[in-house]
Structure formats: C-alpha cells, structure tokens
C-alpha cells in the first residue's frame, strides 16, 4: 500500500496547451545510483499536508497502516465534513464514510511496505523543510498521464520527534500532466491540450508502530450497507435468562433501571420497571403471557396492589410476527439479534472489539427499519458481548464460559440510547416462580387453591421452600393435564 493513498488524486484543471506533451519518460531503474529507497515500517501513521497548487487548495490528511492487521485508514475534513476511507485488505473492501453516510466498494491488495511509485530514479541529497534529506526522483507514465515524483527522506543521524527510524519520510512532490478534458451533459470528454498539476505532500509527525485497532473500525452510529465484516456469528443465547438493566435515554435526560426475566419455554416474560406515568406510586411489574395473549401491569404501593390487563400487540415487549401475521414471542436469539429481512432490516454483522466496563467485548452492528404512523423509521443497533474467554461468576453458579451480553446502543433520528446489561443469568434456576405471579390481578373469590399429592420419600424435597425445589414443583404442575387435578 502506498504511504500516500491520495497521491494520485490529481488536482483538476490547470493551464491547457494545444497538444498533450508528457513531462517525462521512465528510465530503466537499474540505471539508478545511490542509496536504496527506504522501506516503510510494517505499521505507521502520519499527518500529511497536501497542497494542490493548480486549485489553490491545501488540505490536511491523516493516514494509518498496519500490515499485521492488513488494514489502512485515510481521513480528511473538508467543508466541515469528515471524509474517511477504511481499507480492509483481508476482505478486499474499502469503506467510504462521509459524515453519517457510508458505502462499501472492493479493492485489490497491493504490496505493503514500500512506496508504490513503480520504481525509482536518480538519487541526490537535498533539503526539504530545512531537513537534510536523501532525495529520489521517479518518472511515472501511462497512456493518459505522466508525472515526476520527488520524495525526500531524512539522512541517517538526523533526529526527529520520533527518531526510532534511521530515515523518516519528509515530503513527496508530484509534478505532471494529463490530457485536458471538459464535461458535456455530465460526461467527461477529452479535448485538445494538456492539463498541468503540481502537488506537494508534507509528512508531519510520522509515527512508526501500530495504532489502537479501533481506528480501523466503522465509527459508532454508522451503518454501512453491504459491509461483509469478519465471519463471526452472534453468540447463541439460552432460551431462559434473567438480568438487570440500565437504560440511558440521552434525548430524555433520564436513566431507567429494572430487571427482566425471559422464559421462551413457558412463553412468559416479566419486567420490573419504574412507573413512568406515576413515579411516586412505585415500580410496575409487567408480565406478558404469550399462552393467552394477555399482559398484566401490577403495582404494589404501601401494601396495596393494583392490576390492569391489556392485549399483547405488535408494540408489546418481546413480540414478533409469524408468516401468517400472528403475534408470537420472540426467541432469545431474535431478542438479541433483531428480525432480519423485514422492512429492510438487516442481519447483525461483526464490527470489531471494544472494552465495556473493563471487559473485552465483541461488537455486532445492524439496522432495524419499521413503520409507525405511516412513517418509516430507522434504528442502528450495536450489540456488545463479552469475548468467549470471559467467565460468569455469579451467585448460585460459577465458572460458566459464556458470551454475556453487556450492552446495546441504539442510534435514532432523536439521538442515542444505551441499555447496559448486568447480572446476566442463563441458568435454569434463574427463573424465580414468583416472578410470574399474577395473583394480585384476581380477587379472593376468583382465586383457586390447588391441592396435589406426590408419591415419594424425599421429605427434604417435599417440605423445602428453596428455589430449586419450587422449580421442580413448577415444572410438575406445568405438565399436569386438567383431568389429573384432585
């Protein structure tokens, strides 16, 4: 990869002559004398001040390259908008980001570690920016262009702020011509004459060594259509879990905390959350029963319980729509990965790595598209899961190897929202039976007491009130049919 990725972004129109004349003809590189053209480090970063004399324009670029990661980066700011190109040579992708707009195109892998100037010419000693330098000149020519490239490296022994290299790149100068052209009806048409260009690239703070890998990742809140990403699938979620969450709504300036229990097998979901409408009345326990299609909002304030019922709809918690447009409960995989394909929504694609609360995490990104009030809305989601080598150590169990969800960030037209996940518990006994208790929704007259008998001699089990025993009874009762009740 060339150190100057933008070196051949030729400045537009200069002075036109009556006939195209190349400025030089390449010579045999074997005739060159002097020191060998230095190789670049296998990883580096640098700022470059690029001056396009024919356009009276100067720009500042930042470039980074890492051969081991097989990635490169180039960005600049123009008219207040940051333009970024991320090169992934493993996937043969170039990611173009202008503000929040992102496109992906393909690229071919070029040989890293040297200047892509197609050979070098004569070597002389010179001075650039008052640095004593080695100076090489090369001629590059094709059917539609020709130009000299002059490039300068500090002589060995010249100290720079980062003097780890014997010779540091200082400047590159491109001086050449290409056939003049004009535009007709939006199409480029070649005309008589020659366009001249003269570009100067000054390298500032050339830094050998690897940068933080995150600079080669797509920025937060940007979704790139067509991005392939590495071949990493979203971690498989258990059909039953309990967790604590904290939701931060930036556009509301609010922090909401709560607990959730999700049981696909029993088709039940319970969420304990604050009462948004009457904060002084305490928390609400919302239970949705997908067996009946009924949801329950239960409050318990100062010893008095209230309950309201509602029909589960498309906008309810954890709902999905089947092929017959019937509402069903989402699987945990859908819950943590979205519903791909619907209304233009996407699959989650692996994005990279980050640290969340000191935990090394993998990131997957996706896009959800939905309609509300006949208006289409788009949400970009970024899911963070602990890397596979992190273990769960929690009350009641220990040492389970699991990719725990840590947080999800939502980017909408109104701003950014974050849901952080704590105490994720994927063990069967995580489901406390009383979590789904809807007794407050029925009067004493409506309630029914159930008596049943079990044959056995395990008195500890029969008379125990611990959580595991209650789970055994819960599963037994759940498997009983109506004719077995006594």
Task: Summarize the structure in short.
The chain has helices at residues 332-337, 459-462, 467-479; strands at residues 43-52, 57-66, 71-78, 81-88, 93-98, 101-106, 123-128, 131-141, 146-154, 169-184, 187-208, 240-249, 254-263, 268-274, 283-289, 294-301, 304-311, 319-321, 327-329, 349-356, 359-372, 375-386, 391-394, 397-401, 405-412, 415-425. By secondary structure, it is mainly beta. The strands form four sheets. Strands 6-5-4-3-2-1-11-10-9-8-7 form an eleven-stranded antiparallel sheet, with no helix packed on it.
Biggest beta sheet attributes: 11 strands, antiparallel
- Binned, the helix content reads under 10%
Widest beta sheet: strand line-up = 6-5-4-3-2-1-11-10-9-8-7
Give the radius of gyration: 32 Å
Silhouette:
elongated
Oligomer: single chain
End-to-end CA span: 79 Å
Number of strands: 26
Provide mean pLDDT, rounded.
Answer: 77
Which class of secondary structure composition applies to the elements?
mainly beta
Q: In percent, how much strand structure appears in the residues?
A: over 45%
Quickly count the helices: 3
Please trace the helix and strand order, writing H or E for each element.
Answer: EEEEEEEEEEEEEEEEEEEHEEEEEEEHH
């Amino acid at each position: 990869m060339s150190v100057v990725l933008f070196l051949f972004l030729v400045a537009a129109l200069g002075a036109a002559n009556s006939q195209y004349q190349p400025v030089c003809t390449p010579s045999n590189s074997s005739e060159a004398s002097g020191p060998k053209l230095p190789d670049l480090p296998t990883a580096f970063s640098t700022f470059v001040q690029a001056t396009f004399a024919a356009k009276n324009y100067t720009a500042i670029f930042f470039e980074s390259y890492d051969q081991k990661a097989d990635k490169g980066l180039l960005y600049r700011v123009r008219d207040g908008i940051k333009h970024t190109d991320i090169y992934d040579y493993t996937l043969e992708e170039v990611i173009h980001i202008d503000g929040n707009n992102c496109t992906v195109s393909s690229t071919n892998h070029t040989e890293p570690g040297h200047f892509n100037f197609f050979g070098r010419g004569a070597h002389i000693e010179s001075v650039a920016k008052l640095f004593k330098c080695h100076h090489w000149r090369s001629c590059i020519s094709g059917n539609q262009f020709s130009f000299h490239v002059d490039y300068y490296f500090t002589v060995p022994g010249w100290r720079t702020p980062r003097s780890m290299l014997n010779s540091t790149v200082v400047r590159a100068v491109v001086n050449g011509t290409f056939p003049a052209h004009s535009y007709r009806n939006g199409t480029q048409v070649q005309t008589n004459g020659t366009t001249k260009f003269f570009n100067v690239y000054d390298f500032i703070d050339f830094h050998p060594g690897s940068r933080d890998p995150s600079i080669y990742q797509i920025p937060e809140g940007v979704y790139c259509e067509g991005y392939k990403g590495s071949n990493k699938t979203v971690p498989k979620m258990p059909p039953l879990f309990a967790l604590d969450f904290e939701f931060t709504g930036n556009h509301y300036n609010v922090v909401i905390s709560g607990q959730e229990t999700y049981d696909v097998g029993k088709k039940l979901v319970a969420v304990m959350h604050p009462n948004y409408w009457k904060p002084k009345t305490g928390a609400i326990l919302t239970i949705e029963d997908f067996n009946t299609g009924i949801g329950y909002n239960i409050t318990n304030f100062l010893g008095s319980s209230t309950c309201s019922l509602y029909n589960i709809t498309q906008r309810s918690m954890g709902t999905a729509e089947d092929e017959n447009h019937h509402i069903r409960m989402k699987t945990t995989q859908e819950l943590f990965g979205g519903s791909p394909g619907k209304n233009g929504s996407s699959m989650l694609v692996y994005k990279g790595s980050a640290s969340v609360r000191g935990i090394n995490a993998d990131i997957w990104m996706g896009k959800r598209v939905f309609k509300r009030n006949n208006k289409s809305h788009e949400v970009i989601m970024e899911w963070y899961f602990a890397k596979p080598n992190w273990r769960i150590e929690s009350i009641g169990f220990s040492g389970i190897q699991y990719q725990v969800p840590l947080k999800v960030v939502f980017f909408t037209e109104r701003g950014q929202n974050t849901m952080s996940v704590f105490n994720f518990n994927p063990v069967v006994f995580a489901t406390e039976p009383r979590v789904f208790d809807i007794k407050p929704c029925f009067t004493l007259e409506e309630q029914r007491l159930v008596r049943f008998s079990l044959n056995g001699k395990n008195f500890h089990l029969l008379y125990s009130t611990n959580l595991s025993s209650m789970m055994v009874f819960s599963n037994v009762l759940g498997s009983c049919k109506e004719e077995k009740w006594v």
